[in-house]
Specification:
It is a single chain. It contains 7 helices and 6 strands. It has helices at residues 8-15, 38-47, 59-71, 76-94, 98-115, 122-133, 159-165, and strands at residues 18-23, 29-34, 48-52, 138-141, 149-153, 170-171.
């Protein structure tokens, strides 16, 4: 289809749950499931909020700029830091270190939004800043950027302040799913 998209979304849907996906430059992927205990999974879910920004976008256009940046060798240090932070984030989740995970999420979002101009338009920065002022520890725009859904990470007791600060956005309740893609209707 000649779209500038990766394979991580399809892998995440197929496997379900939390996974570490390592993709080589040639496109080969290895997937390692991160299975949290029911208590740790519930604790993680309690910290997360999901909001629709109200703007849909085409991921291919934004990803094209990221591909060009990578081909030109720009932002290599930032990309390396993001890759190396995956192990640290995994360890934080496994130990239920939500405070440091929230800080890591914030730091990684600051780096991701600096990669190319169209990842975080001004309205996205405004949403994130409102959430931070209301108590969010971290967050990120899901997908390629430019719009779509924003994940906010905060202590559960701060959620009401964040809901108030982002009252114009649609809150989307969700839970993590461990099963991945399934056939739910066979038509027989």
């Amino acid at each position: 289809m000649r779209e500038n998209v990766g394979i991580q979304d399809q892998i995440a849907c197929a496997y379900g749950g939390l996974n570490r996906i390592d993709i080589t430059q040639e496109g080969a992927a290895s997937v390692r499931a991160l299975r949290l205990s029911p208590y740790k999974k519930q604790r993680l879910e309690e910290y997360m909020l999901l909001f629709f920004t109200g703007v849909s976008r085409t991921a291919s256009d934004i990803a094209a700029d990221q591909i060009q940046m990578h081909k030109e060798g720009r932002k290599e240090a930032e990309l390396r830091w993001m890759q190396e932070s995956v192990q640290l984030g995994q360890e934080m989740l496994e130990s239920s270190d939500m405070v440091n995970f929230g800080a890591l999420l914030h730091e990684s979002w600051q780096i991701k939004r600096s990669l190319v101009k169209n990842i975080a338009p001004q309205f996205v920065d405004d949403i994130y800043e409102k959430a931070r002022k209301a108590g969010a520890m971290g967050g990120k725009l899901l997908g390629a950027g430019g719009g779509g859904f924003m994940l906010i990470f905060a202590h559960p007791e701060e959620h009401w302040k964040i809901h108030t600060a982002l009252k114009g956005l649609v809150h989307v309740p969700f839970q993590l799913e461990d099963k991945g893609s399934q056939i739910i209707y066979t038509g027989s």
